[in-house]
Design a protein that fits this description.
The complex is a heterodimer. Chain A is an alpha+beta fold. Chain A contains five helices and nine strands, in the order H-E-E-E-E-E-H-E-H-H-E-H-E-E. Chain A folds into two domains: 29-87, no CATH class; 93-198, 60s Ribosomal Protein L30, Chain: A (2-Layer Sandwich), CATH 3.30.1330. Chain A has helices spanning 2-25, 74-86, 107-110, 113-121, 140-160; strands spanning 29-33, 42-47, 50-54, 59-62, 70-71, 93-98, 127-133, 167-174, 193-198. In chain A, the strands form three sheets. Chain A has a four-stranded mixed sheet. Chain A has a three-stranded antiparallel sheet with strand order 1-4-5, with helices on one face. Chain A has a two-stranded antiparallel ribbon with strand order 2-3. In chain A, strand 7, helix 5 and strand 8 (167-174) form a beta-alpha-beta unit. The N and C termini of chain A lie far apart (60 Å). Chain B has one domain (24-142): Jelly Rolls (Sandwich). In chain B, strand 2 and strand 3 form a beta hairpin. The chains are: A alpha+beta, B alpha+beta. Chain A: It holds the Pfam family OmpA. Chain A: InterPro entries: Bact_OuterMem_StrucFunc (IPR050330), OmpA-like (IPR006665), OmpA-like_sf (IPR036737). Chain A: This is OmpA family protein.
């Protein structure tokens, strides 16, 4: 009996895989991949024929939702998606610079500025956002102004040190976008920061 | 008088235009690709701006890569058409949304901060089904 079940399974699984891959060859489909950072998330497909959740890298499914996710051969991914994958721009990089109590960067963060400038130089049409933040000490509107002073200061320092860019935005999130969640009126050095996204 | 009215209309429209900032930039192109925004078609090259509502196209033997403000990445293989129908990225105001439509072709997608902060805010529609994105990378092909 176990022998019989084994034969049945070993026959059925390749048959099902072959069916999916063949169907994919002439249809619209999706394949989940590992993220550049090594994590794997998930995608759902909702079509006329059903809904599927894909959460394993390398698994694919038809976009009409008709079949359960199944592995897609690496060769097939390369053949169908090689050009799209080769055109993928460099993954953006984010730097977090911290402040002493006021508008003076910590020494360590000041030392990161040349790294940011070098990172920007390595990218085509680089666009940069500089976003200032505060902790929750003090009034919200004063923090909004302080965060903008911090962001402007970092943007100016980067430019003085030779940053070249295609586009740059300088913004303030004040105390509305905390890195470390705290109640109001809490002194938190990790929230006193400027985030620089280099894309 | 007439000149004055025309001029103030022009100034008003440029103010509105400025409020509507680019949401991303083309980073690389091989072959023929275009970006249509506000009814104007531009041949895409490194540095071309992408706006909410832009339609992105690639021709035969062509490809294009785009990076958005929230660090989402989309790159396209040949004969592809994708529109970015909705794009909201204001994390401090809690306004996050990315809705696109892949009409045909191939795309490699890497999710950015919008998907990280609010996973149900990201959707890619296709003629056969809708893709919901839970912070990840995927490739997708739509055959006409």
């Amino acid at each position: 009996m176990p022998f019989k079940a084994g034969v049945f399974r070993s026959f059925l699984i390749p048959f099902m895989l072959a069916f999916l891959l063949q169907a994919c060859a002439s249809e619209s489909y999706i394949v989940l991949l590992e993220n550049p950072d090594g994590h794997t998330g998930a995608v759902t497909v909702s079509g006329e024929k059903g809904k599927q959740l894909i959460k394993k890298a390398g698994d694919g499914a038809l976009l009409d939702g008709s079949q359960a996710p199944a592995p897609v051969a690496a060769d097939k991914i390369r053949e169908d998606f090689g050009e799209a994958m080769a055109a993928r721009p460099k993954v953006p990089k984010r730097f977090i610079l911290y402040f002493q109590i006021d508008t003076t960067l910590t020494a360590e963060s000041e030392g990161q500025l040349p790294t940011i400038i070098a990172e920007a130089a390595s990218r085509p049409a680089v666009d940069i956002s500089v976003v200032g933040h505060t902790d929750t000490m003090g009034k919200a509107d004063e923090n909004a102004a302080l965060a903008l002073v911090r962001a402007t200061l970092v943007a100016n320092l980067l430019k003085e040190k030779g940053l070249k860019y295609h586009n740059m935005t300088v913004e303030s999130h004040g105390e509305r976008n905390l890195l470390i969640l705290t109640p109001n009126e809490v002194y938190e050095p990790k929230n006193r920061r400027v985030e620089v996204s280099v894309r | 008088m007439f000149k004055c009215v025309v001029l103030s209309g022009y100034l008003l429209s440029s103010v509105l235009w400025a409020a509507d900032a680019p949401i991303g930039w083309v980073k690389n192109v091989t072959g023929d690709a275009s970006v249509s925004s506000h009814g104007v078609l531009v041949r895409a090259e490194s540095g071309t701006a992408v706006w909410q509502g832009s339609v992105l196209r690639t021709g035969a033997k062509s490809s294009m890569g785009i990076t958005f403000k929230d660090e989402t990445i989309m790159s396209f293989g040949p004969n592809t058409q994708m529109s970015v129908d909705e794009y909201l990225y204001a994390p401090a105001q809690g306004q996050l949304s990315l809705v696109g439509k892949l009409a045909k072709g191939t795309m490699n997608y890497v999710s950015g901060i919008i998907a990280k902060l609010q996973p149900d805010a990201v959707a890619v529609n296709t003629p056969v089904g809708m893709i919901g994105v839970r912070g990840t990378q995927f490739v997708v092909k739509v055959e006409e």
